[in-house]
Amino acid sequence: MTTSKPNTVPAAAAGTITIGGDLVVNRMGFGTMRLTGKGVWGPPRHPEEAVRVLQRSVELGVNFFDTADSYGPNVAEELVAEALHPYPGLVIATKGGFERPGPDRWVMNGRPDFLRRQLHGSLQRLKVDRIDLWQLHRIDPKVPEQEQLEAVREFQREGLIRHVGLSEVSIAEIQRARKVLPIVSVQNRYNVTDRRWEAEVAYCEREGLAFIPWFPLSAGSFDEGGLLHEVAQRHGASVYQIALAWLLARSPAMLVIPGTSSVDHLEENVVAAEIRLSAADMKKLDRLRE
Question: Positive or negative, the Cα torsion across 136, 139, 142, 147?
Answer without folding.
Answer: positive
